[in-house]
Amino acid sequence: MIKTVDLTKRYGESYAIRSIDLNLEAGDLFGFIGPNGAGKTTTMKILATLLNPTYGEAYVCGHSIYHDPKEIRRLVGYMPDFFGVYDDMKVIEYLEFFAAAYRIRGPRRREVCNEKLELVDLDFKRDAYANTLSRGQTQRLGLARVLLHEPQVLLLDEPLSGLDPRARIEMRAVLRRLGSQGKTIMVSSHILPELADMCNKVGIIDRGVMSHCNTVDEVMKQVRQQIVLLIEVTGDIDAAAKLLEQQDMVASVTINKTQIAAKLNVGVEDYTDLGPLLMAAGHKIRLFREEEVNLESAFMALTKGLGHRV
Ligand SMILES: Nc1ncnc2c1ncn2[C@@H]1O[C@H](COP(=O)(O)OP(=O)(O)OP(=O)(O)O)[C@@H](O)[C@H]1O
């Protein structure tokens, strides 16, 4: 559905993206992860045929961005990270305006708009003025807009950014729904855990270079070089920490107020014995979980040395 080969964009002497090779199948929900300025928007704009690469190839549904840009625009829905809505238009009018631009005519136009509003859970706002929507609702309206022409491929640039936790949950639910409809979705973010449980594939890009691109499980394994367990016990925390420290699989242990952070050795993934061990020593466990991957530090460490600007 999406294929890029050696895709490169240069501005003067510096590379916005460098030799990106990507292969996404129909139905893939691909998380495109990287910090600010990594090259996510550049890649998406090239795939949406809004920007030409310096060299390399990109195909969407088998069509080359050089030879069939019109066909690609028909097949792709691109949602930029920021977009404006018109002040004096109601939600339904806003959508109908774009539906008209897509030449959706007659009673079908309203039908399609209502369908898409329902799909993004925004039908309850159909008669509200577009500029009165919250950021989360505005993002969902933007999504409804790019769905009007029934694209097979969605390119969504940071649709979760700036949303509060509830709006994030709602947006993620909408994205999952779209994924289950068989669309190929590329969604960018700068937070790995935010996308990891939603996507089947992720790619990590930093300073224009894609350092990891694989199934979520594989990439998480690579990024998470060492698992850190956060543990809270009732009773003697120092004794629990000492016990953990003595285990072969544990690299180091620190105590922060009421919480123990046990860093496991590189490559250790099975730590199921540690809970029962603590309990056998008389500790009751209040919390036992993996620390969330800190993307910024973990993948900055992993990508060190990649992405040199020339
Ligand atoms: N028109 C331009 N002229 C010069 N440099 C540009 C231009 N557009 C983008 N760049 C540079 O290319 C690099 C990649 O930018 P891009 O917008 O693709 O990153 P991004 O991953 O989408 O970042 P963000 O998360 O901040 O949106 C950045 O260093 C940016 O400064």
Automatic annotation (TrEMBL):
Organism, as annotated: Pirellula staleyi (strain ATCC 27377 / DSM 6068 / ICPB 4128) (Pirella staleyi)
A GO molecular function assigned to this protein is: ATP hydrolysis activity
The ABC transporter domain extends over 2-232
By sequence similarity, the record places it as follows: Belongs to the ABC transporter superfamily.
* Cited CDD domains: ABC_DR_subfamily_A
Database matches in InterPro entries: AAA+_ATPase, ABC_transporter-like_ATP-bd, P-loop_NTPase
Q: State the PROSITE patterns in the record.
A: ABC_TRANSPORTER_2
Q: What is this protein called?
A: ABC transporter related protein
- Short name of any one Pfam family annotated for the protein: ABC_tran
Q: What is the lineage of its organism?
A: Bacteria, Pseudomonadati, Planctomycetota, Planctomycetia, Pirellulales
Print the keywords alphabetically: ATP-binding, Nucleotide-binding, Transport
Q: Which PANTHER family match?
A: ABC TRANSPORTER, ABC TRANSPORTER, ATP-BINDING PROTEIN
